[in-house]
Design brief:
With 418 residues, the chain is α/β, with parallel strands linked by helices. Helices cover 40% and strands 16% of the residues. α7 (200-212) links the parallel β8 (182-188) and β9 (217-220). The radius of gyration is 21 Å and the shape is globular.
Length: 418
Amino acid sequence: MEFSSFGKSFSSKAGIVQLMDDLGNALSVNKSMLMLGGGNPGQIPQVQARFRRRMYDILEESDRFERLIGDYDPPQGESRFVEALAALLSREFGWPLGPGNIAVTNGSQSASFMLFNMLAGRDDAGAARRILLPLTPEYIGYADQGIMADMFTANRPSIELLDDNLFKYHVDFDSLNIEDDVSAICVSRPTNPTGNVLTDEEVTKLVALARRHGVPLILDNAYGTPFPHIIFTDATPVWNEDVILLMSLSKLGLPGVRTGIVIASEPIIRALAGVNAIVNLTTGGFGAALTVDMIESGEIISMSKEVIRPFYQEKADKAVDWIRSALAGYDFRIHRPEGAIFLWLWFPNLPITSAVLYQRLKERGVLIIPGHFFFPGLREDWPHRHECIRLTYSQSPQVVEKGIAIIADEVKRAYDGG
Ligand SMILES: Cc1ncc(COP(=O)(O)O)c(C=O)c1O
């Protein structure tokens, strides 16, 4: 048996698949590994209790459960959920949208896979069309999603050094070229892995650039507002017909129900629903069922702002304090934590690469992700790629504090020539 080129490239991808295998193996060999590597959201008892109660309501409500497990939804997503979300977004932000602007997918990961390959790849004339990532580091999960090889092209950021060992990436508009082969621009905001939140000015400029070039701007809002609202700045949410907004129920605490949401112009939503029908028939309905009441009542917004955001903000603040005291006197920088569930650490001129640091930390029972994986599409070699790591602070404080102490120890050893 031989796989097709699609089968080969999707089953033997070097980066992410191998890394995930490595992380999984490390965990199965050593159950007490300190897992600061994954992207799993934290366990928030108050939120879990709310969804548990909602599940009881579903079970008790006449034939609601039987319909949930027994009916296919339309390929665009469950109608009541789509209508409730359109009403919430127009009420909350004044966006001119209706149910025809929303599609529900099996996770936003599958939404980006479908959209990237609908927009980029080979066109009818055989020419290559690409997705531009205007600011890397960017989400590792995009890296291998192109059916066509080399589907991403990317830009280095500019770096603003801030007080207190912080720094912030910005889109480097001076070097951002939108070549003729670019068919969409994509950014996550808040950004996985850095916790960056693009400024309103940057987003406005990207929207204008995208419009000028007649391509959509894909804004990945998996951590953003109005839910789960893991965003610590006052960034203005943006949607108009030039924007494709991706949302997700995962970081609300529901990664297991696999629900992503796409908000876009009606022609894009119709096309996406068609692709979804071909690939999945339709989307699983559990996420919609668990949240539709909260979307109708607006509780999803209050829960996000009053429970979810403070939960992560407190964890981020604590982790930053632990890093600062553990690495005092050494050359380190933390990307200003503005949202998402990660800290991005930069060790300028570290004598070892982040890949070696990852191995050393794994041997000492701590899992992080080395930074070089987060530059999909960036062709040039840039030493900075090998000087950064991503760690997740959503785990318990004991795990995070212990993990940070070991990371600091290894980083100091490396700087000291060990
Ligand atoms: C920026 C970003 N986008 C999309 C996803 C995919 O989320 P899901 O498929 O669970 O909705 C993630 C998951 O970690 C993410 O960090």
